[in-house]
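About this split. The held-out portion is used to measure sequence recovery: a designer receives only the structure tokens and must propose an amino acid at every position. Recovery is the fraction of positions where the proposal matches the reference. Here is one held-out target exactly as it appears in the evaluation file.
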């Protein structure tokens, strides 16, 4: 008897057990659990970092808001595509981009860490930036 797949106990008992009993490969063994989406997120981070350097190169810390990202995505197919592949529901909506950014806050992908900082003690919209962890080791924490 196989260990049932969490939340799919009935399916495991009815379908999976029957397939294995018939000599077929265990369908759970064929699932690749290694792709956690970090490749898509890394691609999005790299494009965002590149655009923030290009658009905000003169600023002190290259911080951007979700609204800035929405504006950049409007005119940039590569950014739009990367964000959609990384799970952003609507690249034209600063609210949806804000949700996506908050979902990936402090995430490290592609050697970059997405960090946020509160503006005016949280009374204004957060600013975001990507930090190269190889150059800014102290900001990993």
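Reference sequence for scoring:
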């Amino acid at each position: 008897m196989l260990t049932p797949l969490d939340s799919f106990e009935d399916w495991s008992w009815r379908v999976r057990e029957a397939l294995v009993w018939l000599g077929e490969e265990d369908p759970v063994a064929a699932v690749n659990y290694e792709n956690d989406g970090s490749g898509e997120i890394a691609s999005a981070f790299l494009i965002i970092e590149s655009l923030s350097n290009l658009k905000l190169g003169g600023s002190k810390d290259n911080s951007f808001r979700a609204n800035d990202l929405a504006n950049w995505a409007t005119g940039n197919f590569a950014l739009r595509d990367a964000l959609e592949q990384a799970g952003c529901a609507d690249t034209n909506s600063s609210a949806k981009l804000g949700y996506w950014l908050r979902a990936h806050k402090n995430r490290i992908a592609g050697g970059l860490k997405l960090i946020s900082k509160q503006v005016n003690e949280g009374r204004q919209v957060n600013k975001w930036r990507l930090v190269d962890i190889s150059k800014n080791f102290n900001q990993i924490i």
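Annotator remark: The chain has a mean pLDDT of 84.
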